[in-house]
C-alpha cells in the first residue's frame, strides 16, 4: 500500500525557516515526480513546487520563488521542502503528493497518492 507522510511543520516567527519532509512507504520514490502543495484557511489548495524523478524542478507558485527549495534523497525515500524567510501568508497545511509519472504535472488530478499534511503557522 502506497503511503506518504509529511512532517516538520510547526509554529514559526516571520523570517524563520522550516524543513518539511515527505517520507514514502509501500513504494520507492525514484520513479515518481513528487509535488508539494499547500492549502491556507478558506482558500483552495495550490501547487508550490515539484521535483521529477530525475531531479528537474518546477515552480507552481511565484510567491515562493527564491525562498522555497525542493530536493529529494532517493536513498532515504524522502523529499524535502526547505522554507526560508517565512511570511504570515505562508501559513497553510502543506501536503506532498506522488504523480503517476516521472515528470511533474500541471494538474492536481495526476498526483495519485497524497499525504495527510503538516501544519505550518507563521505568526509573531
Provide a descriptive summary of the structure in words:
By secondary structure, the protein is mostly beta strands. Helices cover about 0% and strands about 50% of the residues. It has no helices and 11 strands. The protein has strands at about 5, 10, 20-25, 35-40, 45-50, 55-60, 70-75, 80-85, 90-100, 110-115, 120. Strands 2, 4, 5, 6, 9, 10 and 11 form a 7-stranded mixed beta sheet that branches. A hairpin with a 6-residue loop joins strand 4 (about 35-40) and strand 5.
H and E order:
EEEEEEEEEEE
- Classify the oligomer: single chain
- Principal-axes geometry comes out as globular
What is the helix fraction of residues, given as a range? Answer: under 10%
DSSP strand content = over 45%
Number of helices: 0
Q: What is the rounded distance between the termini?
A: 40 Å
User: What is the average per-residue confidence, as pLDDT, rounded to a whole number?
Assistant: 95
Largest sheet: 7 strands, mixed
Unreliable runs: none
Tell me the structural class.
Answer: mainly beta
Number of strands: 11
**What does the radius of gyration come to?**
13 Å
Task: Summarize it.
The protein is mainly beta and 124 residues long. The protein is 0% helix and 48% strand. Strands 2, 4, 5, 6, 9, 10 and 11 form a seven-stranded mixed β-sheet that branches. Strands 1-3-8-7 form a four-stranded antiparallel β-sheet, with no helix packed on it.
Task: Record the SSE blueprint.
Blueprint: E1 3-7, E2 10-12, E3 18-25, E4 34-39, E5 46-51, E6 57-59, E7 68-73, E8 78-83, E9 92-99, E10 111-114, E11 118-122
Parallel strand pairs: 2-11
Antiparallel strand pairs: 1-3, 3-8, 4-5, 4-9, 5-6, 7-8, 9-10, 9-11
Amino acid at each position: 500500500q502506497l503511503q506518504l507522510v509529511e512532517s516538520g511543520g510547526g509554529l514559526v516567527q516571520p523570517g524563520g525557516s522550516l524543513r518539511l519532509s515527505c517520507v514514502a512507504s509501500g513504494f520507492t520514490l525514484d520513479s515518481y515526480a513528487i509535488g508539494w502543495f499547500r492549502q491556507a484557511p478558506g482558500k483552495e489548495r495550490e501547487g508550490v513546487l515539484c521535483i521529477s524523478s530525475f531531479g528537474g524542478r518546477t515552480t507552481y507558485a511565484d510567491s515562493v520563488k527564491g525562498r522555497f527549495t525542493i530536493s529529494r534523497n532517493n536513498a532515504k525515500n524522502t523529499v524535502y521542502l526547505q522554507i526560508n524567510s517565512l511570511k504570515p501568508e505562508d501559513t497553510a497545511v502543506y501536503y506532498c503528493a506522488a504523480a503517476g509519472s516521472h515528470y511533474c504535472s500541471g494538474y492536481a488530478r495526476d498526483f495519485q497518492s497524497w499525504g495527510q499534511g503538516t501544519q505550518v503557522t507563521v505568526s509573531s
